[in-house]
Amino acid sequence: MSKLRGLVLATDSMKTKIRDLRKERRISQDELAKAVHVTRLTITSIENEKYTASLPLAYKISKFFGLTIEEVFDFSDLESDEDE
Fold first, then answer.
1. pLDDT tens profile 34-74
2. Is 56 exposed, middle or buried (0-12, 13-18, 19+ CB in 10 A)?
3. Cα 67 to the chain's mean position, in Å?
4. Is residue 79 classed as helix, strand or coil in its secondary structure?
5. What does each C-alpha distance from 57 to 61, 81, 82, 83 come to in angstroms?
6. ∠ CA(74), CA(79), CA(83), 5° rounding?
7. If you ran DSSP here, which 8-state letter would residue 4 be given?
8. DSSP assignment of 9-77, as one string?
9. How confident is the model at residue 1 (pLDDT cuts 50, 70, 90)?
10. Which residues, other chains included, contact 69 with Cβ-Cβ below 8 Å and sequence gap of 6+?
11. Pairing state of beta strands 51-53 and 7-9?
12. Mean pLDDT to the nearest integer, 5-11
């Protein structure tokens, strides 16, 4: 069983606002990880853009912060790829 559940290897990493949201709300990586049922390593990997969260995990993280997925995850790189 992988310690990085809910992740997709990021060939094109996705920027997120997770770190900023955690710091604003004074939430540790461990607290967020427990709330969304993943490891701290998973949160670290997403914040450092080593991995991209799966859609179900992105939903859980966004719901935790009371925001939409689009407010937490930056899809602008994906949108620019579609224009080409």
1. 999 999 999 999 999 888 899 999 999 999 999 999 999 98
2. exposed
3. 13
4. helix
5. 6, 23, 24, 27
6. 160
7. S
8. E-SS---BSHHHHHHHTT--HHHHHHHTTS-HHHHHHHHTTSEEE-HHHHHHHHHHHTS-HHHHB--HH
9. very low
10. 58, 59, 62
11. antiparallel
12. 52
Handedness of CA 45, 50, 56, 59 (dihedral sign): positive
What whole-number distance in Å separates Cα of residue 51 and Cα of residue 49?
5
Q: Which two tokens stand for residue 55?
A: 């859609």
And the tokens for 23? Answer: 């710091």
Kindly report the pTM of this predicted structure: 0.78
